[in-house]
Amino acid sequence: MTSTASIPFIDLGAQRRRLGERIDKALLSVVDEGNFILGPQVRQLEEELATYCGAQHAITCANGTDAIGLPLMALGLKPGQAVICPSFTFASTAEVVAWLGAVPVFADVLPDTFNLDPEGLAVALRTAREEGLEVRGVIAVDLFGQPADYDPIEAFCEQNGLFLISDSAQGFGSVYKGRRSGTIGKVATTSFFPAKPLGCYGDGGALFTDDEEIAATIRSLHVHGKGSDKYDNIRIGMNSRLDTVQAAILLEKLAIYDEEIDARQSVADRYREGLGDRAVTPVVMEDCLSVWAQYVIRVEPGRRDFLQAHLKDKGIPTAIYYPRPLHQQTAYRDFPVAGGKLEVSDRIAGEVLALPMHPYLEENDQARIVEATRNGLSANR
Ligand SMILES: *Cc1c(COP(=O)(O)O)cnc(C)c1O
What is the pLDDT of residues 123-151, one digit of tens each? Predict the structure, then answer.
């Protein structure tokens, strides 16, 4: 008899059971100590995060969106200037550019990795210049946990005098040719939103840089543009801090993060073995390590809805990341699009389907997902 009990898409409960008392103790100690804002756990987490990825400076903040917005402020992005970013991503990547009155210029991605197509960057630059825009930088995204192809992206940025920000909200812990997420780009960022690979119990984010001056500016910006203290305001800033409670939780989660990444890799390996001959499974570039924030397969657009309904019927939740690329969204459709058309982004939005992925996915549950997916892909509709 096959079970139809529901399988969670992401099982935070399993991790909670594993960490058990350690989280309770961490929470209680913050409550007892009462240092709710920028308590000692925040500084300790920043030190451990910096050590983990090998960055000189780690600065925590309120969420992964602010983590990208703060460096744009520190880099002096001005209204009317442009930043190139992928269209096939979560809204934050482009949102922060528009916050500052600047212009996101959307570039296309590669179908097998879902990340920026380095060759599309030149097209984006040309489009922006044709519209009379001054391009300042590129925001690359480590979508679904895999690093973008940074060697050619960095070369392009260097050649054209552009800054590079690595939006690694989904990719903290990933490795690009020996380099860890957090050490790539002028500034790298991440998110601790609960469903991200390293998530807390609310909103949270962090950014990383080796640049002393940028780090100092961001430390000021994220506490109201403070100077020598918070009642000395030397620039217009914002309030974007990680709560001490979240830092205490993250310290416990960071301690088991490498094991969790290994477990995610095993889940990804089993999906590839079970589905590789039926669906287009994700490709990880050579010498790179994904942290598998999502496991996203591609299926013919005509079959995706059927497959999703079929899996739902079997108690298997799936998700579509992302149903529409940003350049097709109401809020973003008037911004420039590289070469006038993003063929890959438009196409894959109709093909992607994310399967349950988390470090505690049991082998028998995964076997059920694989079997149901195979059946759904071969069934007559
Ligand atoms: C989640 C996410 C963000 C934003 O993180 P929040 O903590 O939710 O603000 C930014 N970029 C990408 C690619 C994301 O997936």
Answer: 999 999 999 999 999 999 999 999 999 99
CA of residue 374 to ligand 1 center, whole Å:
31
Atom of ligand 1 nearest to the CA of 92: 10
Q: What percent of the chain has pLDDT over 70?
A: 99
- Name the residue with the closest Cα to ligand 1, atom 7: 64
Residue 69 Cα to ligand 1 middle (Å) = 11
First to last CA, the chain: 24
The Å distance, Cα 169 to ligand 1 centre, comes to 5
DSSP for 180-237, please give it. ETTSSSSEEEEE--TTSSS--SS--EEEEES-HHHHHHHHHHTBTTBSSSTTSB-S--
Give the number of the atom of ligand 1 that is nearest the alpha carbon of residue 142.
13
Q: Determine the pLDDT at residue 56.
A: 98
Could you give the CA distance from residue 312 to residue 309 in angstroms, rounded to a whole number? Answer: 5
Yes or no: say if 214 and 74 are a contact pair by the CB < 8 Å rule: yes
- Residue 1: what pLDDT? 45
Residue 52 pLDDT class (50, 70, 90 cuts) = very high
pLDDT digits (tens, 9 = 90+) for 82-96: 999 999 999 999 999
Among protein residues, the one whose CA lies closest to atom 1 of ligand 1? 169
Residues 6+ apart with CB under 8 A from 26: 41, 248, 249, 251, 252
Task: Looking at the CA of residue 68, tell me the nearest atom of ligand 1.
Answer: 10
Q: Tokens at residue 150, please?
A: 């940074």
- Residue pair 170/199 in contact (Cβ under 8 Å)? The answer is no
Ligand 1-lining residues (CB < 6 angstroms):
63-65, 89-90, 92-93, 141, 167, 169-170, 191, 193, 203, 205
Mean pLDDT of the chain, nearest integer:
97
Average pLDDT of the residues in 193-220: 98
Cβ contact 70:45 at 8 Å: no
